[in-house]
TrEMBL record:
One of its GO terms (cellular component) is nucleus. Residues 85-115 form the Orange domain. It is found in: Nucleus. This is Transcription factor HES-5. Keywords: Developmental protein, Differentiation, DNA-binding, Neurogenesis, Nucleus, Repressor, Transcription, Transcription regulation. The gene is Hes5. Residues 118-142 are annotated as: Disordered. One of its GO terms (biological process) is negative regulation of cell differentiation. Transcriptional repressor of genes that require a bHLH protein for their transcription. Plays an important role as neurogenesis negative regulator. Its main location: nucleus. Transcription repression requires formation of a complex with a corepressor protein of the Groucho/TLE family. GO terms for molecular function: DNA binding; protein dimerization activity. Residues 19-75 form the BHLH domain.
Length: 142
């Protein structure tokens, strides 16, 4: 007797199911290997940061990922502008220079008033703001 179409379909579906069951562990292992490789690369790239925050502890994969996120957030945050300090210093020098002469012209007086106002303005004062490192405690269940 010739095989029926239903029997042939049953065989091919069973064969596909068996093939998928055999492939699944291989594909899963490849996926885990990619994840582990990427985590090792992160650990290598950010090794100095890890030593700063956790010098004596063995890092787990979750620790490496958390510290990487913290480092990237810290790196992405805007840095305070350093040009403000130079501007403030320049204004101080101008006020000092214009204040030296006893005989002031109208232009000197206007400039002196302008720079003194700029010196006292909170918008132009250089805030002393240091970038504080983001140190978050690693989550440990124990």
């Amino acid at each position: 007797m010739a095989p029926t179409i239903a029997a042939a379909m049953g065989y091919s579906q069973g064969h596909l199911t068996m093939t998928n069951k055999l492939r699944k562990p291989v594909v899963e292992k490849m996926r885990r290997d990619r994840i582990n490789s990427s985590i090792e690369q992160l650990k290598t790239l950010l090794g100095k940061e890890f030593v700063k925050q956790q010098p004596d502890s063995k890092l787990e994969k979750a620790d490496i990922l958390e510290m990487t996120v913290c480092y990237l957030r810290q790196s992405a945050s805007p840095r305070p502008a350093t040009g403000n300090a130079g501007y403030s210093r320049c204004v101080q020098e101008m006020v000092h220079f214009l204040s030296r002469d006893e005989m002031k012209t109208e232009t000197q007086r206007k400039l002196l008033n302008h720079f003194q106002a700029a010196q006292n303005s909170p918008a132009h004062q250089s805030p002393v703001k240091e970038a504080t490192p983001v140190k978050s405690a690693l989550w440990r269940p124990w």
